[in-house]
Write the structure tokens for this entry.
Amino acid sequence: MFEDIIFAYYQMQSEPILILYVISSFVSVIVLNFSICALIRDSSQLDKCLIENIRSVIIWILFLALKKEDFIWTQLVGFLLIFSTTIFLSELYDKTESKENNKETNEASTPYSQAGEKPNRKS
């Protein structure tokens, strides 16, 4: 259940390809974290989820290309389900947020008298 660093070191010595996997994992995490930091300033958490899903798919495709993993169609269905759900929720969030912004804009632009009463409008 615990990680054995010494054993991992010996495994990397005996199988040099593991060093490439470790380095690619580090690079992947660094790129992911940089992308998330750049997005969080301007976007929602749903965009962060989408980037994490894309990273998982890229790693999955890489392992398929290197013949280190067999293609299982249910994984593809799972990725498509995750993507479609994330995009749907993102669109739903954007619509809800734009309605709230429009409501706030309309309330702020409605002319009221200083006493806070609605103005009398004659037809």
In short: The mean pLDDT is 77. Residues 5-107 form one domain.
